[in-house]
Specification:
With about 210 residues, the protein is mostly helical. It contains nine helices and no strands. Helix 1 runs antiparallel to helix 6 and helix 2 runs antiparallel to helix 3. The longest helix has about 30 residues. The protein starts with 5 loop residues before the first helix and ends with a helix. About 40% of the residues are buried.
């Protein structure tokens, strides 16, 4: 169980789904990781003259892009496993702070930091054959893998299809768990992501 393992990929995907549901429900209907959804919501809102939280969606999309850009430029400095794991720290801090702030704090001061952190994570841990937050691509790769297995009868395609199915299940499970816990813990629900990632970092620190 390490930063390049399939188990950790599922863990990150769960956190992405968890964060998306949290920011959508508690922080103005903006998705932290799913920028495709933000584009759709933004477009529909503008046509319908519903411009509430437009700045939040725009700022989150921009922050996500900046996170990807920065990690692409400086990725060589994070090639070693220890430094690679340090890119999880912004997301841990963001979730800790977000859960501590009251509802009155403007969403534009909170949600973009989710976008920035998840953009960094997307490049740091995103492998070529899957993505932690873009379900359309994962759904496509899942069905392609199943199709290849049926056609070729090769076990490599079977295991790939199971892994991709696990990714999709992790994202959906994270979103469902977040929605359920919000009923009881409200804004503090996002501390679940902080807890999970902190435990993983501590586990890896002990290994090192």
């Amino acid at each position: 169980f390490h930063s390049r393992s399939k188990a950790f990929a599922c863990l990150l995907t769960m956190c992405a789904g968890f964060s998306d549901a949290y920011t959508f429900i508690e922080r103005g209907g903006t998705l932290a990781a799913g920028q495709t959804g933000n584009v759709v919501f933004l477009s529909v809102g503008l046509i319908g003259h519903e411009i509430a939280d437009v700045e939040v969606k725009l700022a989150t999309m921009l922050a996500f892009m900046i996170g990807i850009f920065l990690m692409t430029v400086f990725q060589r400095f994070f090639s070693h496993s220890v430094w690679r794991l340090s890119t999880l720290v912004p997301l841990v801090l963001t979730t800790l702070v977000a859960g501590s702030l009251p509802k009155e704090v403007p969403n534009v001061l909170i949600v973009p930091f989710f976008g920035l952190s998840l953009g960094i994570v997307a490049i740091s841990f995103g492998e070529v054959d899957y993505n932690h937050s873009f379900m359309t691509g994962n759904l496509k790769k899942t069905m392609v893998a199943y199709g290849n297995f049926v056609r070729e009868r090769k076990m490599e395609f079977f295991w790939e299809s199971l892994f991709m199915t696990s990714l999709i299940g992790s994202f959906v499970g994270g979103a469902i768990l977040s929605t359920f816990l919000i009923q009881y813990y409200g804004l503090r629900t996002i501390w679940f992501v902080s807890l999970v990632l902190t435990i993983f970092l501590a586990y890896r620190a002990i290994q090192y």
